[in-house]
Design goal:
Blueprint: H1 2-10, E1 24-28, E2 44-48, H2 51-54, E3 73-75, H3 82-85, H4 89-100, E4 120-125, H5 130-141, E5 145-150, H6 155-160, E6 165-168, H7 174-182, E7 186-192, H8 197-210, E8 216-218, E9 231-233, H9 245-262, E10 270-276, H10 281-290, E11 295-300
Parallel strand pairs: 4-5, 4-7, 5-6, 7-8, 8-9, 10-11
Antiparallel strand pairs: 1-2, 2-3
Keywords: Oxidoreductase
InterPro entries: ADH-like_C, ADH-like_N, ER, GroES-like_sf, NAD(P)-bd_dom_sf, Trans-enoyl_RdTase-like
Family: Belongs to the zinc-containing alcohol dehydrogenase family.
Length: about 300
């Protein structure tokens, strides 16, 4: 995840060194603690590793064994390879925190049997990113229409995930084009899955053009606020904390297991395997730092 090299470079979120990074893991259950009834040794699972929340390196992913809370674990079907599905965990929690918690867009919880759309629309900026691709699928499964952005090469991918309209974020008319599309809808919120100056500026300009203020969830803090544009930074772990535990319960214990089993939820963007073993993690992080498009870098252990 981009957050890993950013933490390594800037030290954000850490209070002690050394520390083990990594939020996404997939593998076999080796042991279960007292009171855990959902899993047994040998189960195939994905996990959102919560070391950044607990500040305990035992709860991070970049090691041979990791200890995780069962609140952030889902079984996976035998048909899905670990390398394929490991792209999902952090993106799931981050997308859900922005879409479904009370402090953000507060959408209805998603259903594997996608409900009929009721006319409400959200904008997801960065639809081919890890969080964006996941957010599109979750939002569509909650019954809202989705307008998104991506490079032209990724438009087909983003549409296949459930976006109703996709715009080229580099187009000189992207602000005008999206505003025109949104003004005909019941526009209720924005999820900025990129959260850099360019996306903040574009979203702010869209809201100005519409003369409308809606909730804006962002994956990184923003320091650019206006009368209509005030991004609210998403904390992934909020879905297992008060007052939003119901979100984590529904997503990780009900929706994701059922959606993966039924094939209705895609593991996107595709994995790009960039190494084998702990020795290759740094090289994979360096590759992520340089940038990849519509791919998520994976190291197998």
């Amino acid at each position: 995840n981009p957050v890993d090299w950013k933490i390594q470079t800037h030290g954000r979120y850490l209070s002690e060194y050394p520390f083990i990074l990594g939020e996404d893991a997939a593998g076999f259950v080796e042991h279960v603690g007292a009171g855990v009834t959902r899993f047994k040794k040998g189960d195939r699972v994905i996990a959102h590793c919560h070391g950044l929340m607990t500040k305990d390196p035992a709860n991070s992913a970049f090691q041979s064994y990791t200890v995780v809370t069962d609140s952030l674990v889902s079984p996976i079907p035998d048909s899905m390879a670990f390398e394929e599905v490991v792209v999902l965990p952090l993106a799931i929690s981050t997308a859900c925190a922005g879409l479904f918690t009370k402090d953000h867009l507060n959408l209805p919880l998603p259903s594997v049997k996608k409900p009929a759309k009721e006319g409400k629309t959200i904008l997801i900026w960065g639809g081919a990113s890890s969080v964006g691709a996941t957010a599109i699928q979750l939002a569509a499964a909650s019954g809202v229409a989705v307008i998104s952005t991506a490079s032209p090469a990724n438009h087909e991918l983003v549409e296949s995930l459930g976006a109703d309209l996709v715009f080229d974020y580099k187009s000189p008319t992207v602000v005008e084009d999206i505003a025109t599309a949104l003004e005909k809808t019941d526009f209720i919120g924005v999820y900025d899955a990129i959260s850099e100056d360019a996306s903040f500026d574009a979203v702010s300009a869209i809201l100005d053009r519409l003369d409308k203020k809606v909730p804006v969830a962002s994956v990184l803090p923003g320091n650019k606020t206006t009368e209509r544009f005030s991004p609210n930074y998403v904390v992934a772990f909020a879905i297992i904390q008060e007052p939003n535990q119901h979100v984590g319960e529904w997503i990780w214990k009900r929706f994701i297991p059922e959606a993966l089993e039924s094939g209705s939820f895609q593991a996107k963007p595709d994995a790009l395997v960039s190494g084998y073993g702990l020795k290759d993690i740094q090289g994979a992080m360096d590759k992520q730092r340089k940038g990849v498009s519509a791919k998520k870098i994976v190291v197998t252990l």
